[in-house]
Amino acid sequence: MRILLVEDDPNMASAIQGALARYGMVVDVVHSLLMAKSALKLQVHDLMILDRTLPDGDGLAFVGVARQLSAVLPIILLTARGEVCDRVAGLNEGADDYIVKPVAVDELVARVRAIARRPATVRLPCATISALTFDFAALEVRVNGRVLPLQRRQLLIIEALIYRQGRTVQREHLHEAVYGLDDEIQSNALDAHISKLRRVLKAAQAGVEIVVIRGVGYLLRECQ
């Protein structure tokens, strides 16, 4: 899952980004509504966490702008404004959830996952191909019922590929799913992750393979 975090407090942003990354989520941090608008135009995010008090305006007023750019994008308002009237205003404006700071990381992750399971995100709880099952909510891979230990990048690759199983995923789209905007990426980094992932899947007898479609991207399919 790739999240856009709109937060102008560097310490808060860093803490949230690091915490969500430990749960296998890619988090892009921007510090203003103008930067958020530019990021949303990329159409690569699965959810947005939005502060209210920002240098160039109130995040509450930005909810409508975000909806115009991405109608089904889930939005969580994360703010220190915790009065009942503030909560009501946030939900009435169209936010999917309203969380008051400070918030425990486990609660924030639980709420993110709960929203990600909603039908509007067009995500299935699980997807299966051959002996491999991917749990979108838990970001977990099982082969014949046993959890397959994978690195975070490998999980994100599987997530992007299995969500579009039977279709070729363009290389640039896979990059967007796996790496954040601020990540420093070596030219062969994605290929290295896919190479390792292939070996793990083969050793686990998952019955699937990642096929390179030259000049286009990658395809996840049952072994032939």
What does this structure look like?
It contains eight helices and 14 strands. It has helices at residues 10-21, 33-40, 59-69, 84-93, 105-116, 152-163, 171-178, 189-203; strands at residues 2-6, 26-30, 47-50, 53-54, 57-58, 75-79, 97-100, 126-129, 132-135, 140-143, 146-147, 169-170, 208-213, 217-222. The chain is elongated. The mean pLDDT is 87. By secondary structure, it is α/β, with parallel strands linked by helices. A five-stranded parallel sheet has the order 2-1-3-6-7, sandwiched between helices. The protein has two domains: 2-121, Response regulator (Rossmann fold), CATH 3.40.50; 126-222, Arc Repressor Mutant, subunit A, CATH 1.10.10.10.
Identify the notable features of this structure and list them briefly.
5-stranded parallel beta sheet; alpha/beta; Arc Repressor Mutant, subunit A; 2 domains; 224 residues; Rossmann fold
SSE arrangement:
Blueprint: E1 2-6, H1 10-21, E2 26-30, H2 33-40, E3 47-50, E4 53-54, E5 57-58, H3 59-69, E6 75-79, H4 84-93, E7 97-100, H5 105-116, E8 126-129, E9 132-135, E10 140-143, E11 146-147, H6 152-163, E12 169-170, H7 171-178, H8 189-203, E13 208-213, E14 217-222
Parallel strand pairs: 1-2, 1-3, 3-6, 6-7
Antiparallel strand pairs: 4-5, 8-9, 9-10, 10-11, 12-14, 13-14
Number of E-type strands:
14
Determine and state the CATH class of the largest domain: Alpha Beta
Question: Which CATH architecture of the largest domain?
Answer: 3-Layer(aba) Sandwich
- The share of residues in helices is 25-40%
State the fourth-level CATH superfamily of the largest domain.
Response regulator
Order of strands, widest sheet? 2-1-3-6-7
**Stretches where pLDDT falls below 50 for ≥5 residues?**
none
Total number of domains: 2
The biggest beta sheet is recorded as: 5 strands, parallel
